[in-house]
Design a protein that fits this description.
Blueprint lengths: L10 E3 L28 E3 L9 H7 L7 E3 L4 H6 L1
Length: about 80
């Protein structure tokens, strides 16, 4: 995928990476720091190591088109069951 097409990204799978939180600032394109993934509709963050829902939910609120946030298998999601 060419770097220029990333702002139009619709689905992002970050599952099974042992992440403890979502660092949205790491998704900023260095050549255009004002880039927001305004087309992102689905973020799969399943089976990571997030123990605090705020470490995940708050950062993803900056994506206005996000329709699906998959959190299955994270410790905080399991504890809620």
């Amino acid at each position: 995928m060419a770097l220029g097409t990333l702002p139009q990204l619709r689905k992002l799978n970050l599952s099974r990476n042992k992440f403890t939180m979502f660092h949205s600032e790491q998704l900023i394109i260095r050549s255009n720091p004002n880039t927001v993934f305004s087309y992102l509709e689905e973020l799969n963050f399943a089976f990571n190591l997030v123990t605090d829902e705020h470490a995940l939910v708050f950062p993803v609120q900056q994506y206005p088109s996000l329709k699906c946030l998959i959190i299955t298998g994270n410790p905080f999601a399991i504890a809620a069951d």
